[in-house]
Structure formats: structure tokens, C-alpha cells
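Bench log, entry 3. Co-assembly request; chain sequences pasted below exactly as received.
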Amino acid sequence: MVDLSKYSFDDFFAAITAKNTQLKNPAIEAYRRNFLWGHLESLQAQFPVAKIALGEKNFRFFAREYLFDCLPSSPSLDLFSSGFPDYLAHRKEIKDVPYFKHIATLDFLSTQKTGATATVPKGCLSIYSALIAGKFEGSFPAISGETETAEVQYEQGRSYLKISG
Amino acid sequence: MQPSLLGLNTRGEWMPKLLSAPSFLDDLPISFLEVIADNFLEASASSTHLNAVAQRAPVHLHCVGMNLGGYDPLDMDYIAKIKELSKQVNARVLSDHLCIQVHEGVHVHDLLPFAWNQDSLARISERVDQVQQTLGRQIAVENLSQYIYFADSTWSEAEFLHKLCEKTGCGLLVDVNNLVVNEKNYAIDPIAELDIMAECTILESHLAGSEKVDSLWIDTHGSDVEPRTFELFAYLQSKKSEPIPVVYERDTNVPPLEEVMEHCRNIQAQLERTADG
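Structure output for the full assembly:
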């Protein structure tokens, strides 16, 4: 049994929600694992194409970073996930590929199905489709300076995104 | 004694299939459904299905957001939504966990333990009182599977729950699998715990499976109910004069619904054996 006589609930809680912790034991690991994997699974379910685009290992890295940098402040896992696209946009590791943010945005529209709209560069739409179809090859093109955008909305009652503009 | 009624912790995607069956639950080994209330608080296809289910069978609501053990203020918006849902589906039992789910504004989406002592009893009694008064009904509080115990606990979990029930009039949801997990991990005596819990009003019991992850048994709800769990449930039932409603929980490694129903048939057979003594 873990002796927490030296630690308070606050210490225990900090050990679960900190990016790194000095408190190491199987029980703390069990809670950290639950905390991490519960949210990772939710992000994976809500951003399936972003996961393909980033690759599983990279996706898990960024998802983990997101969780510990932006601790969930809502009971809703959907609300927690809503900040992920913008978070990706600010990661220095992928700053040269802004497409990832837009791909994640398209994912969020598709999985949430609320009818919300988003404006994305037109160039990423064909990439998104190709990723879904498993037909994307090569590297992501730069879209610096791309001005052509499209408004995208999940078509209620259907299974695709409606594009206008 | 009549055997316990068996219910199933029901995933949203199962409901259309259950609703479309010509005889609904009549040919199935379950007679009521339990759902995680938090998944049905916003209007959706799932909530429409739940309303349809509630017209045809009893529904139990199992919450994961009351934060009964917490230090943060109660989320009264959440409690109001639960109250509304409870009325909508005429919930037969409404429950949540003896745990902390939110701390300093951070929602962990997990069930965290705390020390069982006079201070926490005072804090949590007040919260349970407020929740029950707002809801206008009794709630059932569930025991936890725990992987950490705090040195400043002066009581066992069962002793704490017993005192909580005495102070607030709440009932218990006895998760027997959690007792088995605690027994395996830390040799917590489930019989001693059940002897104390049996003195309370028991509104429901949960049966589920656990799995070993690294060096700890974890309450994954991802496997069959093991014999020890049935044995302990039978012990608990032997101490009560009325059958305790039972819910089978299966949240991970989820097989097709037909296979889940086979597990329910096995559980129903066990419950009948328990009733026969």
C-alpha cells in the first residue's frame, strides 16, 4: 500500500495532472495512465484524420502535451477537444505545416456534427479527402500566403462536409 | 426470495437495437437499463432514444459529475440538468460516486479517492444534503476501486459510507467488483466492508470484471464477472430481506450486444442460484 502520509490530496492531484512528476509508484502511475489514456482516446476519436496526417506517434505526443498544457476545465470532453486545432497551430515542431490545424478543424466539424462552420484554406480540402481515402502521398505543401479559403460546415443529417466559397 | 432484477449499463449505440426488437426486453435477461447520465444531458439522437426506452422500461441514472467528495463548489447547473433528466426518464435510482472528479477547476474525468475522516465527512455530508434537497430525492453513493489510500483516514471506506448514510439519508450503490479489486491489490477485507454496508439502504449493486495492468488490478469493466464477485454479492444479498437490483457494467473490450446478453444470461443464472440459497 502506498504511504501518502507525507503527501496531501493536493500533492496526489498534482502528481496526476503534472506533465512530469517525482511521485513514482504503481498507484500514481495507474491514476496518471487513466487520466492520460481517457483523454487521449477522446482526442483520437475526435481527430481521426489529423492522427493519420501526423502519424500515430506524433499525434500521441501532441495530444499528451495538449492535455498537460491545457488541463480540462469542463466536464465536456468535446469542449476540452475544441482547443486542440489551435494548439497544434502554435507548436514549434510543426509550425512550417499549418495544414495540421486545418485538418484538425475539419475533423472537429465532422465528429461534432453541430452544424458549426469553419473557414479553411482551399488547399487543405483535397489533402483532407486524400488522407481519408488513404491516397495521400508525399509531403505537405507549404501554404504560406494562400489566400483562397472555403467555408466548411457539417451537413446535418448527412455524413459529409458542405463546402462553400 | 425472488432473484434480483438484472439491469445493463447501456451504451447509447445499443439503444436503437433494443428499441427495434419486437419484444423489447421481454426475451432478454435484463429488466431495466442504466445509463451514464452525463452522456444524455444535451439534446441528441441518444437522448431521444433514452426517452423512448424510459417509456417501456425502468431507467437508472448513474452520474459521474456530482463531485460529491470534492472541495470545489458543487456545480449546481449540472445538478439542475440531472434533475431535469431524472424527471424526464422517471429514474428509479440516481447515483454517483464517493470520489473527487474536479479539483481547482480541473476535470479529471476519473474517480479520485480522498481520506475518510471527520473533516471529509462534514464536507461531504453537506454536499450530499444539498444535492438531495435540490434533486428532491434520495441518491445512491457508490464505493470506489482504489489504488491509493491516505494515511489521514481514520475510518474504512465502508465506515465512512455508513456514517454518510446516517447523516444524510442517502442510499448505497455497492460495487462488488470494486471490493474485489481492493482485496486483490491491498487485502482490504470485503466481508468486513460488506457487513457495515449491509446496515445501510442498498439501492443497487454493480457487477463487473477487472484486469491486471502492470502490478495492479484495475476496475476496467472489461471482462467477465469472476466467481469471487458473485460470492461476495451473494453474501451481501444474504444480509438483506429484499432482492438488490443488480447492474452489469461492461465499458471496455466491449463485445457485440448479443454476446453481452449472453453474459447477462449467465449473471441472471447466478442471481437465481443466490436467491435459492
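The helical segments of chain A are 9-17, 26-46, 48-54, 56-69, 77-81, 84-89, 99-112, 123-133. Chain A touches chain B through 28 residues (CB under 8 Å).
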